[in-house]
Amino acid sequence: MQVRALAIAALLAVTATAHADRVVAIAPLSTLGAEDTSAATKKLATDIEAATAALPGTKVVTTAQVVAAIKKANQPQLKTCEGDAACLAELGKLVGATQVVSGEIGGLGASTVIYLTAADVSTGKELRSATLEVDRPNGAAAAMTQLLDPDRYKGTLKLVIDAAGSKVQVNGDYKALDKSGAVELPVGTHAVRVTNPQYHDFAKFVNIDYGKVTEVKVGMQAYPMVEHDVQGKPTNLDQVIYDRDPPLWRRWYVSGPAIIVLAVGAGILAGVIAHDFPSANQCRTVGGMMCSP
Fold it and tell me: How far apart are alpha carbons 26 and 50 in whole angstroms?
């Protein structure tokens, strides 16, 4: 524990001496509206401080320093701002911070979560909020990045594609992959589509986690081959679509007129037969006998 504390103190000291684009104060964590001074909460505050100090261009005012400044100024009401942006702005001015982070400890099922809020000191307004899942690996780093550096809140998608010349779309936009087939994406769920003129499209929803590489194997399914596109003997006849021209007698410009001629001839023949057949009112000699009208 002492080694861990010394390492964090050294990290904070290095950050303080470097150029800082912002100064972030970590307000005391609270539970049910009251400051939580338990050992477990102090450890959570230490993790948040370390994750904040790791962000580029950031100097941290620790919770211990904030508590000391509040005590010295005799303003105990600043210990429990409960996410109120105006209260956090006053706290930031007291310790010389540009931004202030506060957290309310709660529960989500069997897990412990911290509902974090960041406020801008100059405007007295809330910047954004995030949720830290205590049991999640690298949870503090993910939450503080989302809270203070949302543009860096990303993961990596790596596609293993078995068809050369394929194009990749993410949420409808074309993306260029690096040599390893990877591209950075914001954390969350994305619609990924891989297209190739010789293959069926590949489509899948992919979830991207902070700081992790999500690998997806893309198996492209080829379209069936057409006979006139096949060079040499095909290896799989089941995939061949025969596309020969039909014989002469099956072509429309031959079979169409022939059908019309046959239909007209059949009509004429039927008319002739009907004209020669005796009607009920006619009387003819049949076998030497006279029929009666």
Answer: 11
Longest dimension (CA), the chain: 147
As a whole number of angstroms, the distance between CA 166 and CA 175 comes to 11
Distance CA 59, CA 112 (A): 27
Distance of CA 283 to the CA centre of its chain: 93
Q: What does the alpha-carbon distance between residue 60 and residue 246 come to, in Å, rounded to a whole number? A: 81
Ranked by mean pLDDT, which of 221-225, 263-267, 279-283 comes out on top?
221-225
Specify the DSSP class assigned to residue 223: P
Separation of alpha carbons 53 and 59, rounded Å: 6
Dihedral pair phi/psi, residue 220, rounded to 5°: -85, 135
Q: What is the mean pLDDT of residues 199-227?
A: 88
CA distances to 27, 85, 213 from 154, rounded to whole Å, are 26, 27, 10
End-to-end Cα separation, the chain, in angstroms: 131
H helix intervals, 34-169? 39-53, 63-73, 85-95, 139-148
- Cβ-in-10-Å burial (0-12, 13-18, 19+) of 168 comes to buried
pTM of the model: 0.67
